[in-house]
Backbone:
C-alpha cells in the first residue's frame, strides 16, 4: 500500500476541494439556468421578440407570463423546435389557423400558439405554475358556486372568467334561465347592489304588454357604477324561450369590498 507524504496529501486535498467547488458551481449555474428558463417562456433562438398587450396577466386566479415572437421559419419547423426543447409527449391541437402546443415543464405548464405570418411564423407563448393552476382551479370552483347561489332559481351559469391586468380586475359572467327579463333585471340590481354598484341607467327594452305577460321583449342594457367599479349587463330573450344575461364588471385593484 502506498503511503502518501504530508505534501502529497495536501496536494490531493486541494485537488478534491477544487473539483468539489467546481461541481457545486456547475450545479448552481444549472439551477439558476433552470429557474430562469421556468420564469421566461422559451422562444426559438432566431426569433425576434415582439410586444404583447400584457407580459403578465391573471385569469381565474392563474398568473401567466407571456412572450410574443416572429420567426422566419415556417410553423412546421417551429413546432419541431418546440418538440425538441420540451420533449414528448406534447399536447397538440388545431384551432382555426392556429396550432396549439401544451406541455408540463419544470413545474410549469407552457402553452404555445403558432400561426403563419408570411413566410414565417407568429407565436405567443404563455407559462404558468402548476401549483398556481391548482389553486386557481379551486378558487374558481368556489367563485362559481358563490355566483350560482345568488342567481334566480333554475339558472345555468354558462361562463365565468376573471382577469387581472394593469391594476384592473375584469369579470365576465353569462347565464340563462326560464324567467322573464324583468325578474332577471331585478335580480341583477340586487346582486350588484351587494357588490357596491348602483344602477345608473338602462337602454332598450321597456315595459310593454308583452313583457308584463312574460312574453318576449326587446333586449335591455343596464349600466351600473360604484366606487372604483362599473358594470354593464345585457338581458335578452333567446330563441329557446329562455332569458340570457351577459354581465361585464370592472374593478380597480384595491377598491374591492
Residues:
Amino acid at each position: 500500500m502506498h503511503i502518501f507524504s504530508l505534501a502529497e496529501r495536501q496536494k490531493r486535498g486541494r485537488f478534491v476541494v477544487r473539483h468539489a467547488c467546481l461541481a457545486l458551481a456547475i450545479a448552481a449555474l444549472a439551477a439558476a439556468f433552470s429557474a430562469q428558463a421556468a420564469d421566461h417562456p422559451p422562444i426559438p433562438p432566431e426569433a425576434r421578440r415582439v410586444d404583447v398587450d400584457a407580459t403578465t396577466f391573471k385569469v381565474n386566479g392563474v398568473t401567466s407570463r407571456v412572450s410574443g415572437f416572429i420567426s422566419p421559419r415556417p410553423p412546421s419547423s417551429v413546432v419541431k423546435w418546440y418538440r425538441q426543447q420540451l420533449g414528448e409527449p406534447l399536447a397538440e391541437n388545431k384551432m382555426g389557423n392556429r396550432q396549439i402546443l401544451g406541455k408540463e415543464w419544470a413545474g410549469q405548464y407552457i402553452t404555445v400558439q403558432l400561426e403563419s405570418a408570411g413566410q414565417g411564423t407568429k407565436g405567443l407563448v404563455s407559462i404558468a405554475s402548476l401549483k398556481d393552476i391548482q389553486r386557481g382551479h379551486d378558487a374558481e370552483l368556489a367563485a362559481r358556486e358563490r355566483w350560482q347561489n345568488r342567481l334566480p332559481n333554475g339558472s345555468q351559469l354558462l361562463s365565468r372568467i376573471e382577469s387581472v391586468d394593469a391594476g384592473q380586475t375584469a369579470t365576465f359572467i353569462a347565464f340563462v334561465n326560464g324567467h322573464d327579463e324583468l325578474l332577471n333585471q331585478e335580480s341583477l340590481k340586487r346582486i350588484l347592489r351587494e357588490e357596491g354598484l348602483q344602477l345608473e341607467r338602462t337602454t332598450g327594452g321597456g315595459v310593454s304588454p308583452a313583457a308584463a305577460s312574460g312574453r318576449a321583449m326587446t333586449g335591455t342594457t343596464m349600466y351600473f357604477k360604484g366606487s372604483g367599479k362599473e358594470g354593464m349587463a345585457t338581458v335578452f330573450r333567446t330563441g329557446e324561450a329562455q332569458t340570457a344575461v351577459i354581465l361585464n364588471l370592472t374593478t380597480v385593484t384595491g377598491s374591492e369590498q
Summary: The longest helix spans residues 6-39. The chain has a mean pLDDT of 76. Residues 127 and 246 are 29 Å apart (CA to CA). Helices lie at 6-39, 75-86, 130-150, 181-194, 209-212.
